[in-house]
Input
Amino acid sequence: MPIRSILDVDVTGKKLVVRADLNVPVQNGKVTDNTRIDRFGKGMKPLIAKGARLIILTHMGRPDGSMDPSYSVDKLRPSLSAALGTPVHFSDVCSGPSAEIHANSLKDGEVLLCENVRYVRGEETNEIALAEGFAQLGDIYVNDAFSCAHRAHASTEAIARLMPAFAGPLMLEELGALQSALDNPKRPSVAIVGGAKISSKIEVLKNLVVAVDHLIVGGGMANTFLLANGAPLGKSLNEPDHINTVKEITRLARLSGCTIHLPPDVVVAREFVAGADTETVDAFGCPKDAMILDAGPNAVTAFSEVLDHARTILWNGPLGAFEIKPFDAATVALARKAAALTVCDSCVSVAGGGDTVSALNTAGVTDDFTYVSSAGGAFLEWLEGRTLPGVAALMQDGKV
Output
């Protein structure tokens, strides 16, 4: 069944139990990055303007069921109020009679933020009793937290089976972007996958090679591909136990017509420190006392030529150890290439994952990509081709 949008519902006077992801960085009691809150607020404002009554459920950190005050979401209220354009009431519990009293006292267009759902142990174990408590707070459930959709928790999965369930604006935006990049891409489609280890992205790679036309491999995982091809790696990070994994991924790519692109040259150094002396060598020429820390300039040129023909670009993971200069060069250069192609409408570009977002920020091109996902685990599981519990739970024929 299709996922239903809350934007298609008459929400006037309705109490919407909204699962958000407002797990943002906080220092000295103040939010230091409002990005998630601002994106959430932008989507919720039209619902508030129509007279919806919002009851917001969210988590912060991993308090493991304890009432650790450092994880209280009360401190989010100033930023959340600014993003929503209206005062935000607060309930110091997320379910039960007290929370219900707060929810029932809301007037049209008012907002209630409930305390951290992870203060309650039943949240992460998906307990139906807790979900029933959440459901008592409102009339309609809205999941607007794609980044939490890979978890079958009481506030993301069980509750959706107890009341009419809809996707929020952010959820719909994320799903639309990912489907356009992976499920039904404009072709040729190119996936760029980097990062330290193949072992962390085996299923991602296996799924991508049967879904895209070209796969560019970078980062430490490219080293293992090179090792499987007989390249000496010196002291470079690699996973010899996964040579057979590389061979299996290569076999799947060949069967599906996907071309795998590895760096033809690499940047090596004897130490991994900022400003280290570097040398650019052939991918099969790493010295015994050196380590590969970035793709080389010829690799950037070759990869850029692949992108020139792309209609869809999907990116997860940096091409090198981008956290330390000068080993960010290849990632920054290719990110700017992808951004330039996007800006001139040559392609659709979708990127996601924590390191990827940081890398795009480093390159200064985050706003130029078609869509950049802040979801970590959920984004990776989608790339693996998995069905996410929080998304599957929205596929129901409930009535409002």
Remarks:
- The CA atoms of residues 23 and 60 lie 5 Å apart.
- The chain has two domains: 6-171, 185-383.
- The two ends are 16 Å apart (CA to CA).
- The first strand starts at residue 15 and ends at 19.
